[in-house]
Amino acid sequence: MRKLAILFVATFWSLLVYSQEDIPNVIVKDLQGKKVNIQNVIAEKPLVVLTFWASWCKPCHQELNSIADLYEEWNEETGVEVVAISIDDSRASGKVKSLVAGNDWPFIVLLDENADLKRALNITNVPFLLLFKNGKIVHKHVGYTPGSEMELFEIIKKNTK
Amino acid sequence: MILKRLALIVFIGSLAFKLDAQIFDKGTFSGSFETNNNLYRTDSVINANAPDDKFGSNTYFKFDYKLGKFSAGIQYEAYMPPLVGYSQFLKGNKIIGRYASYEDSLLTFTVGTFYEQFGNGLILRSYEERALGINNSIDGFSVKLHPIKSATIKAIWGKQRKYLDYGEGTLRGIDAELNLSTLLWKEPSVNIIFGGSWVSKYQEYTGTNNQIPTTVDAYAARLMLEYGSYSLNAEYMTKDKDPMQLNLFSMDKGNALLLQQSIVGRGLGATLSLRRVENADFRSERQAIEASFINYVPALTKQHKYALANLHPYSTQMMGEIGGQLDIFYSVPRKTNITWAKGVKINLNVSSYWKPKGNEYLSISDTLFFRDVGIEIEKKFSYKFKTALSFINQYYNKGAITGGASEVITNIAVLESYLKLRKNIWLKLELSELFPVQNENNWSLALAEVSFAPKWTIFASDMIDHAEQNIHYYNFGFSYTKNASRIGISWGRNREGLQCIGGLCRFVPAYSGFTFSISTVF
């Protein structure tokens, strides 16, 4: 009963509070093995797409490949930057560096080996992307279907105004 | 119990504090909800027996609250009853995760449930993998310290989660990491990172065998090195004698060695991993069979995206294994002049694991456990049409891995295509064929998926086992996605077998019926 009451309070609370989420204070690794705080990666940039992926996730690859093809254009037009977070654990995190180089992805790729950032942002499944405007989350999207990068670009453009 | 109360008090206290302070715009609330439900039916064709309840349901609620440097949260889980393939020990519902945490640039302090990994996880990794029913989070406290920018020190203490409760064993651990390059140089051209860990478990022993230790210590050292396009990641773990159920009460020490090297350039990357493990199972309870993992030693093989390549997944042979994996990724430069090569990407993967030879540390025996050789070629013809071709050859020593006496050898071919039909409407087609070489049936798979970007997807697939009589594993369904929420409904048959994520597997019996899932992030 007590647990139910807590859940109830928690749910009620979530309805009461409305505020935009900030970037969590979480350490991830860059492809050189250096620790970086995700706040420092995102904070200075006006528009950032943070996208979660894994080496074994087919739709994630499609999404990243389609963004890679459009990235130059997107960046020129809106100044948006893309940061791709690999949630691969030590089974595959060692080869992410090669995978990124081999795919010639033009954006920043970081490792979230024990899902600390994924957990902090309450992400359940990949692919999952978030759009940050001046450090605040303005859009979230789960899954990828071919062509949905077009919708994403529309949302990015809206947020440049 | 005390920890639990403390965490709850801090959590509720932080809410109350927030109310009092009247700073509604400062704190944030976030969370997620996920539920997966199955209605089972008995289906004699695939030997699927519906459980007594004919129903299974796994649900997860997570709430986090953050105010400045403080945060707190809970996780509620309900298995009413657990889905087929999950442990029946999960049955029930509970707020099983709860934490309160303080963090600033110097220090992070957490009381309650937390997740942690030391190095590559060879010595310690607590994590959550819902798809496998794994959650070995630690309940206790953890401290992370950054005394200087180039160094991190972590200390943990607690008991590990076991199903919807906590296990008997107590864990203690310390990990330190030093980035020598950033310590010595302002703009280092070479990157050198050292690390070391100690993890100790304690479990009371009331039996009569005075050889059984109550405390088992493990140590690990690691080095990461990067110079130009070359990088090295090495770690060695050693563990004191740790007699337990899983190693048949072996009195030997255990160890694991990982050596990973990469060379990268623009459009090209190669990674070679070598690993040797011996008696490396490390659990917080000596009677553990399928829970209480302390360390994480995943199978270093390719995690295949295609179903037929996953019929015989390999899992690490913790008692003894030696082998490695090579991965090469290449893509033709975007601005190439060669028309046919435009948009081509190639991935080559080879992995092979043997039983080690008894007394020579780095030699292999005649027993091959597993080998996987595959090539995948992707070609993007235009924005509207993409295709990928894969060929995979697998050797799986069923006799040595799961018992019995057979070696399974297969060849698999996969063709996958994406075609844009109209604005925002795409068709995905996947055709696979498994050609048996030894001890397997011929299998075929066809899958069609139509997506209406960005919200709807409908799919139909059939996987056929060409046994004496063809057995069809059909599946169809749809999903609807809006922003961070997703609903999926499907109907069909699922083959019995191992479901593996990250090199850990759970056995899922054959099941048939209706699946319904919802997930949302807020």
TrEMBL record, chain B:
<feature type="signal peptide">
    <location>
        <begin position="1"/>
        <end position="21"/>
    </location>
</feature>
<dbReference type="InterPro" id="IPR046070">
    <property type="entry name" value="DUF6029"/>
</dbReference>
<protein>
    <recommendedName>
        <fullName>TonB-dependent receptor</fullName>
    </recommendedName>
</protein>
<dbReference type="Pfam" id="PF19494">
    <property type="entry name" value="DUF6029"/>
</dbReference>
<keyword id="KW-0732">Signal</keyword>
